[in-house]
Amino acid sequence: MDRGQGRRGRSERKHNGHHGSGRNKLYVGDKAREVLESIDSNSPVVKCFQQYAAELDFKHDKYERIVKLSRDITIESKRIIFLLHTLDRESKKEVILTDSATRLSQLANTHFKNIAKELRGEDPYQYTRAYTAGLQEYIEAVTFHYYLKNNSLQHWIDIQEELNYTIDEAENQSTLKQEESQSSEVIETSTDGQDKESEPVTEMETSVSIKTQVSPMDYILGVADLTGELMRKCINNLGSGNIEGCYQTCVFVRDIYSGFLSVSCTGYKEISRKLITLRQSLSKMENACYTIHVRGSEIPKHMLADVISGTQEDYIEEDEGFF
C-alpha cells in the first residue's frame, strides 16, 4: 500500500505541478501577450529597435536591387562572349569587335552605373557578394574582347577606371530622397535633427564621384574564367584553319597559368577550384598543339578540330610546379 500511494502521489505531482496548482498555471503565450499589451510605444527602447528594423529593411532592399542588376549583367555578358566566339574570319573582326565594344560600354554606363549609385555612401564590401557573379562575368567578357583586339591581358586598373563615374547631384538627389523616405520613415521620425543637418552639405555639391568597386580577387577569378573561353577559341581556330592563332593562344594561357602558380591561394577555395579547371583547359590546348605539330601534315585543315576533339583525354597531369 505504501508503494502504491507513493506512485500515485508522484503521478499527481507530474500532472498538477509540484504544488498541485495546475489549474492556475500561466502559459508562456498568455504571459507574452500581457507583456506586449503593457509595452509603451513611445518608449525610447522601442523606438531604438524600430530604427534598427528600418535600417535593416533598407539594406536588404538595396541588396536585392543589386542582385537583380547583377543577374542582368551576367546574362548580357554571356551574350557578348557568344558574339565574340563567332569571330572566325578576319573579314568579320572589325564588325564583331565594334558591336561587342558598344554593348560592353552600354553595360558599364547603365547597370554598373546603377550599382555605383546604390553603393554611394555605403561600404562596398558589405554588398560585394550581391554583384560579384555579374562582375566576374563582365571581366571575362571585357578581357576576352581586349585579347581578341590587342592579343594581351587588360589590366585591373583599366577595368576599374571604366567603372568610375561622375554624376550630377541635382539629377540624382530626387531619386535618393524617394528611396530613403520609403524605406526609412521610422529613422526620419526618430532623428529629425540629424537628417536636417546633412541636407545643406549635399546641396552645395555640383557633382559627385561614384564607382563600382572592382576588387583584385574578382579580377583574378574573372581572368581564370577567361582561360576557358580561350581554350574554346583555340579549338575553334583549328576548325577555321588558323593554326598560328592556336599556338599563340596556348602560349598566352600558359603564361596566365604560370602567374597563378606564383600566387598563394591558401584559405580561398574558389581560386583552388578554378586553378584545377585552368590546368584542364591548358592540357587540352597543349594536346591540341602537340597533335598539330606531330600529325598536322597528314590531316586536312578542315578536319583538325574533329580529330583533336575526338582524341582529347580528360585527365590532369602531375603539376610540374613553377620555376
List the topology elements.
Blueprint: H1 2-16, H2 28-37, H3 44-85, H4 93-118, H5 128-150, H6 156-162, E1 164-168, H7 169-183, H8 185-190, H9 192-204, E2 207-211, H10 216-239, H11 243-261, H12 269-295, H13 304-310
Antiparallel strand pairs: 1-2
Short description:
This protein has helices spanning 2-16, 28-37, 44-85, 93-118, 128-150, 156-162, 169-183, 185-190, 192-204, 216-239, 243-261, 269-295, 304-310; strands spanning 164-168, 207-211. It has 323 residues and is mainly alpha-helical. Helix 10 (216-239) packs across helix 13.
- β-strand number: 2
The whole-number mean of residue pLDDT values reads 78
**Uncertain residue segments:** 189-204, 313-323
- Order of H and E elements: HHHHHHEHHHEHHHH
The global form is elongated
Largest sheet: 2 strands, antiparallel
Task: Determine the structural class based on helices, strands and strand pairing.
Answer: mainly alpha
Strand % is under 5%
